[in-house]
Amino acid sequence: MTEEVDPDGSTTLYAYNAGFHEVTLEIDEPADGRLSTTTNFYDATTGDLTTMVTDPGTAAAATTTFQWNDGRHDQDRRSGRQLHQQQL
After folding, report:
1. To 10 degrees, the CA torsion angle through 15, 19, 22, 26?
2. CA dist., res. 30 & res. 12, Å (int)
3. Is 86 within the bounds of a domain?
4. Which one is predicted more confidently, 79 or 19?
5. Do 66 and 48 form a contact (C-beta atoms < 8 A)?
6. Is the alpha carbon torsion for 34, 81, 76, 85 positive or negative?
7. CA distance 62 to 68
8. Which helix (H) or strand (E) element contains residue 12?
9. Cα separation of 29 and 37, whole Å?
10. Which of these, 63, 35, 32, lies nearest to 49 by C-alpha position?
11. Is residue 85 assigned to a domain?
12. Residue 7, helix vs strand vs coil
C-alpha cells in the first residue's frame, strides 16, 4: 500500500494491481472524520475498469459498473447513492 498524508492531516491509502498498476483499493480518512473506501475491479485481459464499489455496508454505499467498446468507455450503470460524473 501507498500512503499519502495531506497537510491538514487527511490520509489516503492506495493498493494497486500487479498487471496494469491501477488503483484497486482507496481508503480516505479525512482529518475531520468519516472513513471512505472505494474498491475498483478491472478486466484482467484489457485492464479496463469494470466495477467501482464505494463505501460498502453504509448508507453511502454505491456500485457503478462500466461498459467498454473497443477500449473506449461506452456507458455506466449505478446503484445506491448518486455519484458524480467521472471522466475516464
Report:
1. -20
2. 8
3. no
4. 19
5. yes
6. negative
7. 20
8. strand 11-16
9. 9
10. 63
11. no
12. coil
Query: Is residue 88 in a domain?
Result: no
Q: Could you read off the pLDDT of 17-52 as tens digits, one per residue?
A: 988 899 999 999 988 888 999 999 999 988 899 999
Give the SS3 label for residue 1.
coil
Domain count, the chain: 1
Domain that holds residue 10: 2-80
- Is residue 68 in a domain? yes
Per the structure block, which three cell numbers stand in for 87? 471522466
Say which DSSP state 81 is in: S
Question: How far is 75 from 18, CA to CA, in rounded Å?
Answer: 26
Contact 47, 19 (CB under 8 A): yes
Contact by Cβ (8 Å): 68, 46: yes
Q: What is d(CA 51, CA 53) in angstroms, rounded to the nearest whole number?
A: 7
pTM: 0.78
